[in-house]
Amino acid sequence: MGKTLILASASPRRNELLKKLPWAFITLPADVDELSPGETGTEDLPVRNASLKAGAVAALKPGCYVLGVDTVIMLDGRIYGKPASLDEARSMLKNLSGREHQVISGVAIFHPDGTKDEFSISSRVKFAELSEKMIDDYLACAPVLDKAGAYAIQEHPEMLGAEVSGSIDNVIGLPTEELAQHLEKCDLTLDVSKIPYCRRLATLFFNYVKIAAFVLGGGYAIIPAADAEFCRNRRYISEDDVMDMLVITQSVPGILACSSSTFIGWKTAGWLGAAVAIVGAALPSVIIISLIAAGSRNVDLSAPWIRGAFTGAISGICALVFAMALKTGKKALKKVFDWLIFFGMIAGVFIFNIGPAVLLAAAVVVGMIYLAVMRFWLKKETLK
Q1: Strand partners, 106
Q2: Domain contains 69
Q3: Which of 70, 169, 227, 241 is flagged as catalytic?
Q4: Fewest Cβ atoms nearer than 10 Å: which of 135, 226, 344, 352?
Q5: What is the DSSP letter of 39?
Q6: Residue 222 included in any domain
Q7: Percentage of the chain modeled with pLDDT above 70
Q8: pLDDT score, position 106
Q9: Is the separation of the CB atoms in 97 and 130 below 8 Å?
């Protein structure tokens, strides 16, 4: 079943490197204060900081895979972080001049079940002997104040005479080859943009024709069938996408099957994908309903066997609605806060007779306040 991968970093370099891998991801920077070398062992520092970042985001987004990364430069047992000024950057490059140093990336992957996977990768980089002018020229053309060690290997490496031993992606900030080996063991949603567009359109059309033709029960039966096909089987969409689809389809007017197919089609292949998915979902219905309408001219719809069929269908649809509610509850109701909102909505409907639109609006506002409070609390805890 496709689950969401979250990159707990604001680094554009890590974002670009992660795009090289076949999985979809979203970015949610961690709002934490990183540990300094004096607070932990030098060798442990990148892994500890990576775990700190991933853990903070995992607390906000349970049920997802969260990736945290931290990269440091080390020479003679000393950690070189990001320079606070150009003068400090100049001093760092002087120290690295003509010598080989280590670039260590710590990686932490938090799993939906609460477990975590941690590892570190080391590469070696050697600079040429750098003169004052070479250092000044490099600082004039490369932004270095946000780079550990005051340099970026992907920006004018020829000016530093840099030689890399090991993974160059690791030196840039993300060891993609080693990371891919760990992520392959995870049940992640694919990045559909890497799948040929025509193949995506054909998959949407023919699978929705199959689902609509052979699954009875209308929209409430199509949704779990589409979940099984596009989330669990093909991993075109994530579990979070399925939850978003349920919220949207229950909140907008229109036929449930069309709303859900529009959502999955758009997520998979944009507006054309949405149109293709709707046609695929509607085509069997048009054919079947036309045949029933044509045959009903000579059939007494009040006949006991027809009324019995309708009664059975209604009971079956009620069962599907109940089953879908249970399945959704298992995915969505994970924290005490979720249950409080759930029972509050039940009380609002059955005890206080409040309209659904008002209750949904109130739930949205309460959810936003809760997330803001959680972010503030997590940041406060990391400062202790």
Answers
A1: 70, 120
A2: yes
A3: 70
A4: 352
A5: G
A6: yes
A7: 89
A8: 94
A9: yes
Q: Counting Cβ atoms within 10 Å, is residue 1 exposed (0-12), middle (13-18) or buried (19+)?
A: middle
Task: Provide the total of helices (H) and of strands (E) in the chain, helices listed first.
Answer: 13, 7
Tell me if residue 70 is catalytic: yes
Indicate the number of domains in the chain.
3
Sign of CA dihedral 323, 327, 330, 332: negative
Note whether 326 and 341 are same-domain residues: no
In angstroms, the CA 196 to CA 199 distance is: 5
Q: Judge if 136 and 10 occupy the same domain.
A: yes
Residues 174, 248 within the same domain: no
Rounded CA gap, 361 and 272, in Å? 31
pLDDT of residue 345: 86
Euclidean distance between CA atoms 331 and 324, whole angstroms = 11
Q: Are 69 and 107 in contact (CB under 8 A)?
A: yes
Band of residue 156 on the pLDDT scale cut at 50, 70, 90: confident
My answer on whether 175 and 206 are in the same domain is no
What domain range includes position 373?
335-384
Lowest average pLDDT, out of 2-11, 125-134, 294-303, 315-324, goes to 294-303
pLDDT, greater one: 42 or 240: 240
Nearest one of 292, 264, 288 to 278, comparing CA atoms? 264
The beta-carbon contacts of 191-197 under 8 Å, at least 24 apart in sequence, are: 191/19, 191/21, 191/22, 191/23, 191/24, 191/25, 192/24, 192/236, 192/267, 192/268, 192/269, 194/22, 197/269
What SS3 class is residue 75?
strand
Q: Which tokens go with 59?
A: 């607390």
What one-character DSSP code corresponds to residue 81? -
pLDDT in tens, 82-117: 888 999 999 999 999 999 999 999 999 999 988 999
- Among 333, 351, 374, the domain-final residue is 333
Residue 234 DSSP symbol: S
pLDDT band at 297 (very low <50, low <70, confident <90, very high): low
Q: 119, 151, 183: which is the final residue of a domain?
A: 183
Q: What three-state secondary structure class fits 155? A: coil
Residue type, 190: L
Q: Are residues 10 and 136 in the same domain?
A: yes
Closest CA to 272 of 204, 196, 195, 207: 204
- 58 in the same domain as 28: yes
Largest CA distance in the chain: 97
